[in-house]
């Protein structure tokens, strides 16, 4: 039986990935900070243990017996000078403990932008990469086998764009995006477990359909709820969204400005050869969302 330990198992992407791996017969251990919450939303067959990436001692207990670790963490700021980031100091803590415990393989989800800067048509850099790159380099130099999944935009995020029968798109998004989904990534992770061909490599995770954000939204709502209207708004609407802080506004503007000028190309052939091809179209995946 395949085994994996997941850090970030209860997040927006981590939860469906954990559930899918569990359904595929993988023995999953979830390292979480809130045991009660995790047990309420994860399948009973998933082992839930306490661990905090900010606390090495908790990780030493949580990771005992683990062979393969999957990191599904996220950075939502570009404050490089902050003393702690889960995708920097947190991951470095995981790596240090993993070396001590003899863990053999660490996998991590990151953005497609960090592996293909040439997709940025204006030469713009996504600033959160300045935070996550040091830990990625630390993992590469650790001696532990690593696998990076450089992912395109997840269709799983689409329901979060819907408010009051409206799918709101902010910015001018005309370039093609090869949208992926958590079902696809879970299958890639499954095929990477105990697979030496996946060791010390970076894989691009994309779907097969290259469509613009508005086109994808229309395809999605056509299955999800045909009463929903897709609406497009300029970036200058951001200050009027009522976000909690000015920093949140600045981060959203930076992220959407970056996405506006990002022009993907299909570069996932190696991934498909080693870890399997995507099986779900945008329409197919929308049907799975409806059924959740």
Task: Provide a quick synopsis of the model.
This protein has 292 residues and is an alpha/beta fold. Helices cover 36% and strands 18% of the residues. The chain contains ten helices and twelve strands.
Relevant terms:
292 residues, alpha/beta, Rossmann fold, seven-stranded parallel sheet, three-stranded mixed sheet, 10 helices, 12 strands, 18% strand, globular
Mind explaining what this structure looks like?
With 292 residues, this protein is an alpha/beta fold. The protein has a single domain, classed as Rossmann fold (3-Layer(aba) Sandwich). Helix content is 36%, strand content 18%. It has a seven-stranded parallel sheet, with helices on both faces. The longest helix has 16 residues.
Give the count of structural domains. 1
Please summarize the sheet with the most strands: 7 strands, parallel
The helix/strand order is EHEHEHEHEHEEEEHEEHEHHH
Morphology call: globular
| Total strands | 12
Overall average residue pLDDT: 96
Computed Rg: 19 Å
Side by side, the strands of the main sheet go 3-2-1-4-5-6-10
User: How big a fraction of the residues is strand?
Assistant: 15-25%
Which CATH C-level class is it?
Alpha Beta
Low-confidence stretches: none
User: Helical content, roughly?
Assistant: 25-40%
Q: Structural class from helices and strands?
A: alpha/beta
**N-to-C terminal Cα separation, in Å?**
26 Å
By CATH, the architecture is named: 3-Layer(aba) Sandwich
What count of helical segments does DSSP give?
A: 10
What fold name stands as the CATH topology? Answer: Rossmann fold
> What's the CATH H-level superfamily name?
NAD(P)-binding Rossmann-like Domain
């Amino acid at each position: 039986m395949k085994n994996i330990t997941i850090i970030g198992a209860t997040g927006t992407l981590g939860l469906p990935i954990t559930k899918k791996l569990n359904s595929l017969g993988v023995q999953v251990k979830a390292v979480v900070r809130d045991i009660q919450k995790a047990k309420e939303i994860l399948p009973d067959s998933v082992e839930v243990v306490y661990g905090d990436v900010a606390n090495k001692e908790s990780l030493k207990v949580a990771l005992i017996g683990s062979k393969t670790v999957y990191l599904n963490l996220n950075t939502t700021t570009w404050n490089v000078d902050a003393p702690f980031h889960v995708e920097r100091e947190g991951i470095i803590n995981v790596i240090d403990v993993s070396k001590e415990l003899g863990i053999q393989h660490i996998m991590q989800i990151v953005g497609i932008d960090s592996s293909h800067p040439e997709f940025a048509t204006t030469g713009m850099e996504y600033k959160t990469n300045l935070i996550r790159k040091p830990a990625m380099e630390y993992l590469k130099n650790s001696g532990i086998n690593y696998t990076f999944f450089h992912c395109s935009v997840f269709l799983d995020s689409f329901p979060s764009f819907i408010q009051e029968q409206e799918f709101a798109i902010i910015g001018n998004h005309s370039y093609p995006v090869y949208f992926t989904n958590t079902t696809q990534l879970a299958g890639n992770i499954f095929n990477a477990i105990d697979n030496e061909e996946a060791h010390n490599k970076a894989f691009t995770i994309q779907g097969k359909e290259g469509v613009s954000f508005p086109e994808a939204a229309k395809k999605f709502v056509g299955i999800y709820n045909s009463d929903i209207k897709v609406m497009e708004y300029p970036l200058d609407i951001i200050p009027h969204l009522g976000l909690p802080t000015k920093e949140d506004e600045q981060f959203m503007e930076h992220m959407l400005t970056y996405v506006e000028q990002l022009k993907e190309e299909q570069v996932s052939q190696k991934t498909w050869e080693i870890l399997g091809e995507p099986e779900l179209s945008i329409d197919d995946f929308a049907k799975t969302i409806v059924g959740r």
